[in-house]
Amino acid sequence: MTGTTAPTRSPVGAILRSKWQMLFSGRTDQMALLGVLGLGLACVVFALGRGFFRMLAEVRPDLLVPALASLLTLLALCVTVLALGTAFTRLYASSDLPLLLSWPLSTRQVFTVKTVEVAAAEAPLILILGLPCMAAYGHALGAPGWFYLALAPAAAVFHLLPTGAALLLNVAAMRLVPAYRAREVGVALGILAGALAYAASHLLSAIGGTAVFTRLAESWLGASYLPTAWLAAGLHAAVADSPELFALGLATYGTTGAFALAAGLAVVPRLFTAGWGGAPRRRLAGGRVRRFGAGSPALGMVRKEILVVLRDPTEWAQVAYGLVVIFVVFISGRLRGGGPADPFAVSPVLVFVIGLTLVVTMGLTLALGAVGREGAARWFPLSAPLAAEDWLRAKMWGVSAVVAPVCSLLTGLLGGVGLGLPAGQAVLVGLAVLACAPGSLAISVAVGAGAPVFDSPDPRRRVAPSETVAHFFLQAFYIGVATAVFALGLEAAPPVGPVLAAMASYLVYRVSLRSAASARGRWE
Amino acid sequence: MIRLTGLTKRFGDLTAVEGLDLSVTRGELFGFLGPNGAGKTTTIRMMVGLLRPTAGEVHIAGRDMATDSIAAKARLGYVPDEPVLYDKLSGLEFLQLAADVYRVPAERARARAAELLDVFGLSDRAGDPIGAYSRGMRRRLALVAALLHEPEVLVLDEPTSALDPKAARLIKDVLRDFCRRGGTVFMSTHILEIAEAMCSQVGIIDRGRLIAVGTLDELRALAEPGGNGRAATLEDVFLRLTGDEGTFEADEPFDTGTAP
User: Fold this and answer.
1) What percent of chain B has pLDDT over 70?
2) Which residues 6+ apart lie within 8 Å of A203 measured at CB?
3) CA dist., res. A116 & res. B121, Å (int)
4) Interchain pair B48, A281: CB under 8 A
5) B window 171-190, beta carbon within 8 A of A
6) Closest-CA residue to A43 (of A162, A135, A149)
7) Burial of A120 (0-12, 13-18, 19+ CB in 10 A)
8) What was the ipTM of the complex prediction?
């Protein structure tokens, strides 16, 4: 036999190449749309960052590096928190794991593939927020031309630490608990990370006030012992046209990130497999029932929807992330800085908007992915004697039964206890949120029904990205209309507010139901 | 009981099923055979309302699946080739859901669920989450759910795959009993021995077209014109009709790549 032996391709490289191809296959338009949106957002971040750093250069030039370090630290924390969830999904719940593990690949090679997947999933955040922020710093301070070229390795290296930390935390956590607890641990990690983010934000708000950026830069977030401070110092050196010091900063930061990744790779053969395996779980309460069934197809489907949602920790992990982020954004500043003297802080309309934002946040996982959540089990409702509208109605009611009371209660507590709203007004706002939640959740279910992704184990990816973007626009519109209606009602007479809001919600629910049912052909 | 008329399904340029005409009468156990990718599962998915046909009609117990789908679906029970169920529900909760969706009165549903769970050997595991079930258990649970509302028609896609011999035998007995009581079964299978042993009528589909339908004797006669039709097995008939008769005969020892 003659001929040459073809060079053996790296199996990891081949797998990653095919995954890259799958990412774009048939989704060129969606990716282009997301690219344009991302670019737009990056431009906004750049413009804001440039303005901020220019202002700081005039007022407090001594705080430039600590401020950049603080921003990078916050971004690294955000990426780490998000990567925790992504890493858990990719390492322990992705559908291709059985295939990868059956191939002649070492555990380390599988782990490497998953590491790259996690890094790739979080890369857009760094490209949209981190890179423009660094570029803005250089532009504001008149950096030399090579600075912008140096941003590419800086952004790449910046990625290492949050990704490595998230992977290492996941792998270590799986070692500490039995395999059948893996999913629950994922949830615990998510909530813990969210709580940490909240605590950090709470601390920041305590420091804050009018000169929050100044305080932020002086706080521990900009402390010189943090790796992000080394990176910030390196970038500042690049602005000052000092390539050696830039390389030093980049190398010290990169070494820390590489150490986290290397630690993961070193311990992986012993730790990685601990989270796998479908060990049997406990018996459920449904083992013995007094009354068989809910009595009607609609109630039966609603009951199923509630049980499935309540028993899926990955759903709740995502919800917990969202809720914590919302609380950090809206509340932490108010807890320290706001008060009854601030008329904005006690406005029931503002609390109503916060309440609806909570609903949208919870719905982002639970309602938007409701149709996609059926996955390969959708043969059952589709072959059952149910109209598409019945099935979707059950989804909308089921999710509303879980989300609406929680958000209503949280909003009431937030308004009354957190923001000092009079008790009567807090109850009124809570009721209005309860009334408006079904409309918002119906929008989410309907949008999700239009482009469901049935084979995603990740609750955040059960809908096509373009649909997720459209969902935010629709929700913003709905919040605007519902808020206007609620405010008008309050003007007329306080109890009219929730009544008008309920009417708007019902109208939106009906329209969403019809629209969603027309997408029946896309579930085949 | 089952009538398919001009049933066609196209996916873009690919025609998966073309102009399929077929009738299955009450009490029959109909075996639907065909090579991989012949269009068996696509046909079944159109029959149960999972896929909308590009053209043609499906009638189940006299109800048109396109215009009266709720009534048609209420009269059939379906078990897919890979019965993915709701992992977060227990087996019993899934049966409760099926009872609600198919409007089975609560007391009747409870009694029937208990009986069927017992028959299929799932009583002890009914309270466990479905996520902890094996593939065979999932298939048995899906069959229990399909039988719960006492359907007139059962549509089964590869019903005996992933089952141990004992469970496969049980399912064969259950299906025979179902037909004896007047029910109609439409099942696809790759296992020709099962079709030969169980089915009163067999249909063979190849490249989306129904190329033969009839009793086993009729198919033998069709495959072997002039012969007495007794000697050929269903496997022979199947291979002749699908034009895939060749057997592997190597001139030289064939290296299968197996390590010594």
Assistant:
1) 89
2) A219
3) 45
4) no
5) none
6) A135
7) middle
8) 0.78
